[in-house]
Write a structure and sequence with these properties.
The complex is a heterodimer of chains A (191) and B (261).
Chain A: H1 2-14, H2 25-30, H3 35-67, H4 73-95, H5 97-103, H6 107-110, H7 114-125, H8 130-158, H9 170-185
Helix pairs in contact in A: 1-8, 3-4, 3-7, 3-8, 4-5, 4-7, 7-8, 8-9
Chain B: H1 6-16, H2 27-32, H3 37-60, H4 70-92, H5 94-100, H6 111-121, H7 126-156, E1 158-159, E2 162-163, H8 184-209, H9 216-222, H10 233-239, H11 243-260
Antiparallel strand pairs in B: 1-2
Helix pairs in contact in B: 1-7, 3-4, 3-6, 3-7, 4-5, 4-6, 6-7
The chains are: A mainly alpha (191), B mainly alpha (261).
């Protein structure tokens, strides 16, 4: 239990996936214009990463390790994730339309989100077991949700600021991200 | 210069459509591994090797791969080459392998590689595709190395691991490194300055030509790096001004699924 709590705090806050590991920068910069869409994207990422880390962990432990095919993990993981996202989208569309209504549009964007593959590979690298892997995936994704929601909140305020011509758009967003990353350093005392 | 000749492709990749400075693609590795110039070069060259090989193979197979499954096919090709490069690095350059860590397998999801496969290698013959890969790869390497040099120099007074600026010590006058530049926030800061510089140059060029300077809305749109991987869907959210539109997309999709039933 103690290790699980350390994993949760470590992945969600201390080693935040966007602000200290630089995974998932594209959606972080692209879909953080409004708080509403940002939380939608964040929710979809939580959903997909948790499921993906479960399935990749399952496949790694019960197929790749017994067959001694661990060197194929990059190829297998990316295909599993791509197929999984498609499958989840179809499943939600048919079975849970309300959830699909909330997350569906964001799902195709996530296939190539490097955070999903990154978490799967980190689970293997840190030799987490299945439960630890899923918890790590969930916590990492929650960290992404935090980061993108805070970013969207800041950007909504930036809209009203008078920013010099060349710093409008991406540069000011990156400066905000820089300050957020400095703020997140404060969490490093937690572990 | 004639189009699709080897020299034109090299110039296009390194200068005209430089992936780091002009297209702003592959931001994850750009931010993550540029803590030093050596890491930047290592990451850039690894990506170049994968890019050249995958462009070559995809260009050879462009008439065989059916259009409907081209994305999974490209991903398999790229992932195979990335795995090869990963083992070569692990075997021959273990120090670089340890420094780059998880970002080597993550070359698979680098937008540059799938982007070039989709927009160039799957449409043009083998030789121009190879040179397109070399040009784009070297352009990426140059970009990463430049950012790496700046961060290493400001953050520790070194360049390529050698002490360039003498550090301040006890009773010595020297440079006190701004360590934040080699930490995570420094990456965002350097990239922000770089993009601002790029905006300034673009605006100056536009003014000289007498064309319209990009407006605030245009600049906001650019935030999404235009990697094209999502099929333009992120653009819907990037503008943020059309909440009705995204509702419509969901409803259209739901209607589609109903009509399928």
């Amino acid at each position: 239990m103690k290790t699980l709590i350390i994993i949760i705090v470590g992945s969600a806050l201390v080693n935040n996936v966007v602000l200290s590991q630089f995974l998932g920068i594209c959606p972080f910069l692209g879909v953080s214009k409004k708080v509403e869409t940002a939380t939608g994207m964040g929710g979809a990422v939580v959903f997909v990463i948790t499921i993906a880390s479960f399935f990749t962990g399952l496949i790694y432990d019960y197929i790749l390790v017994p067959l001694d095919f661990t060197f194929l993990n990059t190829i297998v993981f990316i295909l599993v994730i791509a197929a999984l996202v498609q499958f989840v989208e179809m499943f939600l569309k048919k079975s849970i339309p309300s959830l699909y209504r909330a997350l569906g549009v964001y799902l195709p964007l996530i296939t190539t989100n490097c955070a999903v593959l990154g978490v799967a590979l980190l689970n293997v690298q840190k030799s987490y077991n299945l439960l630890q892997g899923v918890v790590n995936g969930f916590a990492t994704a929650v960290g992404f949700l935090f980061a993108i929601t805070i970013m969207a909140g800041i950007r909504e305020k930036i809209e009203y600021n008078n920013i010099s011509e060349n710093w409008q758009g991406t540069p000011i967003v990156l400066i905000s991200a820089c300050l957020m990353a400095i703020a997140f350093f404060g969490f490093s005392g937690l572990i | 210069m004639r189009e699709n000749t080897p020299s034109e492709r090299l110039f296009n990749g390194i200068v005209k459509e430089n992936p780091t400075f002009v297209l702003m693609l592959g931001m994850c590795p750009t931010l993550a591994v540029t803590t030093s110039a050596i890491n930047g070069i290592g990451m850039g060259l690894s990506t170049t090797v994968v890019l050249v090989l995958s462009n070559m193979l995809i260009s050879m197979l462009r008439k065989i791969i059916p259009d409907s499954v081209r994305m999974p096919a490209f991903i398999v090709v790229v992932a195979s080459f990335v795995t090869m490069v990963q083992f070569l690095l692990q075997g021959f350059v273990p120090s670089l392998y340890n420094a780059l860590g998880i970002y080597i397998p993550l070359i698979v999801v680098n937008c540059i590689i799938l982007g070039r496969a989709e927009s160039y290698a799957s449409k043009f013959p083998v030789i121009p595709s190879i040179f397109d890969g070399i040009g784009m790869g070297l352009g990426f390497t140059v970009g990463l190395t430049c950012i790496g040099i700046v961060r290493e120099l400001v953050g520790s007074g070194k360049a390529f691991g050698a002490q360039i600026i003498p550090l301040a010590g006890e009773g010595k006058v020297g440079y006190t490194p701004i360590t934040i530049f080699i930490l995570a926030p420094g990456a965002f800061l350097v990239l922000a300055c770089l993009v601002a510089l790029q905006n300034k140059i673009k605006a100056n060029v536009a003014r000289k030509k007498g064309a319209a300077v990009p407006s605030k809305a245009d600049r906001d749109e650019e935030a999404c790096a235009a990697c094209g991987m999502c099929g333009g869907q992120a653009k819907i959210f990037a503008t943020g001004s059309e909440p009705d539109k995204e509702e419509n997309i969901v409803e259209e999709k739901l209607e589609e699924s109903k009509s399928e039933e």
